[in-house]
Amino acid sequence: MPRFAANLTFLFAELPFGERCAAAAAAGFGAVEILYPYDTAARDTRRALLANGLELVLINAPPPNYTGGTPGFAALPGGEDRFRYDIRRVLRYATELKAGLIHVMAGQSDAANAIDTLVANLQWAADAAPEQSFTIEPLNPTDKPGYALADFDLAAEVLARVDRANVGLQFDSYHAQMIHGDALAVWQRHSSRISHVQIGDAPGRGAPGSGQIDFPALFAAIDASGYDGWVSAEYTPATRRSADSLGWLRATMP
Ligand SMILES: O=C(O)C(=O)[C@H](O)CO
Ligand SMILES: [Mg+2]
Out of 144, 146, 185, 196, which residue is the most buried by the measure of CB atoms under 10 Å away? Predict the structure, then answer.
């Protein structure tokens, strides 16, 4: 069975940020991801992780200081200086928090050279921090209209062009199902380049079992592929308490 992590931006969001690590550990998770850890001093977050025996799997780049603007700059021609500034800042957090992965957000762009820009920026980041692992994640156009990376096959092409061992694909079952209509088929097509997994059902982005995705089959395929990273729960609980949305986890564990 996969090893499950909790995304603390989605799960336990009913609690103050400072209490979410303890709640995740109490629910049985061994790791967490925090999409935007930038509002809290890194040393406080690190202390909470350590106190609860949690690994930090992933944070997002850039920090969300783009009020009303594009989610990320990696695919924005002309945004290279901003991209580099953000990556340097995120690297400081990742180092202090010992975050295993940085998800680099592409941003919204329909420029003809958006993908060329994304490739070049990812190469720059990968070379600037060769010890750090990065991911890219296709996001579905219903939730993120205009996002430059909205297709897993395109993401595979981008990774082939980037050609760096420390840049991989982030597979989110929710986006895979929304974009391609069959998350399991996307997994089978791209598992060799996947370095991080997130799960949520579709449509609706609820807990596994609330939508169309066959999670027992997906978990079996993840195991069969030899993927040994974390599988992070990134969904919106339908229950008031996130802990009450974890029936799928209890059903999955032996
Ligand atoms: O939306 C998602 O699925 C993500 O993982 C992003 O990081 C959120 O911005
Ligand atoms: Mg995701």
Answer: 196
How many domains does the chain fold into? 1
Ligand 1 neighbourhood includes 33 CB (under 6 angstroms)? no
Domain of 48, CATH number, reads 3.20.20.150
Residue 254 lies in a domain: no
Does residue 9's CB lie within 6 angstroms of at least one atom of ligand 1?
no
Query: Does a structural domain hold residue 73?
Result: yes
Q: Which atom of ligand 1 is nearest to the CA of 144?
A: 1
- Cβ neighbors of 101 (< 8 A, separation 6 or more) are 57, 58, 59, 133, 134, 135, 170, 195, 196
Task: Quick: pLDDT tens for 93-147.
Answer: 999 999 999 999 999 999 999 999 999 999 999 999 999 999 999 999 999 999 9
Tokens of 65: 């200081």
Is the ipTM higher than 0.95? The answer is yes
Specify the pTM.
0.97
Which of these is catalytic: 33, 96, 137, 157?
A: 137
